[in-house]
Design brief:
Layout: H1 2-11, H2 20-36, H3 39-56, H4 60-77, H5 90-108, H6 130-158, H7 167-184, H8 193-211
Amino acid sequence: IVVPVLLAFIAGPLFIGYKWLPIALIGLLVYGIYLTNSRGGMLALMAATGYFFIRRSKRRLLGGVMGGALAMLFFLFGPSRLGMISAGEDSAAGRLDAWYYGFQLLKGHPLFGAGQNMFTDDYPLTAHNSFVLAFAELGLVGFFCWVGLLYVTFKGLGLVEKHPRLWPYALGLEASLVGCCAAAFFLSRTYILIPYLLVALSAALANVATIQ
């Protein structure tokens, strides 16, 4: 999530003498993600950086090639478990079972869900999917509000595009949201601070854009 924000500082109007700092931090962060051996983390990084380069490039085809090449590098030199994604693998099978249980909770409590933190009341594992956890515990009403918050934030950042000095930072936050949603598909992050911190930063940036 932090990597696209640092890419925005590199692409933005930051004094060139200071751009070595975000470059160094990106190297440390990518190495840290590599050490976790997390497939979800690496896929989220691929989604975030790929989106950034595609949107950043005026020639979408060129940006897609750059993003695809970067994703291929992550895949080739990423965690050893990255190429082991399979529905039959134990970790994936456990997630599928948890997602099935989440749908059963939604069927039983369609409007307002089973209640916060009730997913593990009768099930030994969490949902391992923020979207499943949202509709299982909050129902369709809560799920609509949670997804709507992310959607409105994303659309609000798009309005900053006409501000050339602020656009790189809006693009970085957009890519961060993409990475956050990609990671959220494999982890239960419905209630943690990070997505809401991104929403707050995005709202602040949009507010600055309206003032200028």
